[in-house]
Here is the input.
Amino acid sequence: MSIQPIKIYGSPVLREKAAAIREIDDEVRALVRGMTESLYYHQGLGLAANQVGVARRLFLADDGKGLRVFINPVIRERAGEISGEEGCLSFPEVFVEIPRAGSLLVEYLDEGGEPRRLEAEGMLARIIQHEYDHLEGVLISDRAGFIASRLIRGKLKKLKKRVRESL
Here is the structure.
C-alpha cells in the first residue's frame, strides 16, 4: 500500500461510524503501513482510517514522541477541559478553536493485537480525542462553537463543492 489520498469534508465516509476490527490480519497491517506513509507525507499528527476511505476502528497518533497505533480504542475516562486550535487533514486550511478534555484514559489494541491502557494528557490527549471523533463520524465542524462555525462556513461550502465535483 502506498500514500493514500485524504478524504475531505463532504465525503460520506467521514460521517460513518467505524466498524470494529475483528482480527488483526495482513489486510489490517497493510492498512496501518499505508496510513503511516500517508500521515507523514501529509504532515499530520493523527489519521483515522475513515479519512482514507476505510470505516474501521483504527487511528494513528504521533505527538512528536513516536507513532502510536490505536485499534478498537475506547476512551474510558476524561478529566479537565482545555481549549485549543485544531486543524484536520480532511479540512484543508481550516483551523478552529475546540474544547477538549485535558487528560484521558484510553484502552485499545496495539498493532500486534496486545491490549493496552494509556493515560494521556496535553497534545497526545487532544490528538486521541480528535481521531476518536473521526471513528464516531464526528468532525471538527461539529465541535466548533457558534462563532467559529459562522467563520468557516464559506470554506466548508467550497470543500463540499470540491467533493461533489470529484464524484
Observations:
- The radius of gyration is 15 Å.
- The first strand starts at residue 46 and ends at 48.
- Helices lie at 26-41, 122-135, 140-143, 146-166.
